[in-house]
Amino acid sequence: MLIVQIKKTGFLLGFLFLAAGFSSLQAQEAPPKLQAALFMKLLGFYTNLGSGDFTIHVVGSPGVASELKGNIGKKIGKAKLSAVSEGEGPPTNGAKVIYVGKSVKAITDYSQANKVLTITGLPKFVNEGVTLGVTIEAGKPKILLNLSATKAEDVNWNPAILKVASTVD
């Protein structure tokens, strides 16, 4: 009887580990290089970016910051990425975009009050109030767009983004 119980428990634990592994394959963080490339393309849909220089502030993700810094000087529409700053909290330099790698609540409070776009590579953060996210699902990049956060940050998107993004309310 004890052996049967151990086998059942072992089967259940094995199933749970398999299920946990499978769900992690469903949505996972994209590598920093891929995130930077995707965000540079997706910012082309962000009509608030304007025509001047802009800065991206990165919170809690040195790898993403490093990859984004490789894009300094590149144009997105009529705008040009002039700098990438890093810090543990909201920017002090008037950034137009904030990458959220941690401290979601503090950053989204700031971004909504100051009308600054938030982006992330962590899918759960989109559900917690970050506007735009990228993830890997079933081995392919996926774009996530939080419509409530879009409205709270007063973000204007080219409507074409709705064709390529999965939306969250």
Structural features, described:
- The protein is α/β, with parallel strands linked by helices.
- It has a single domain (27-168), classed as Response regulator (Rossmann fold).
- The protein contains seven helices and eight strands, in the order ααβαβββαβαββααβ.
- The chain has an eight-stranded mixed β-sheet, sandwiched between helices.
- α4 (104-114) links the parallel β4 (97-100) and β5.
- α2 crosses α3.
- The longest helix has 25 residues, at 2-26.
- The protein starts with a helix and ends with a strand.
Report a brief summary of the structure.
This protein is of the alpha/beta class. Helix content is 41%, strand content 25%.
Count the beta strands: 8
- By CATH's scheme, which homologous superfamily applies? Response regulator
Oligomer: single chain
And the CATH topology?
Rossmann fold
Shape: globular
Question: What spatial order of strands do you see in the largest sheet?
Answer: 2-3-1-4-5-6-7-8
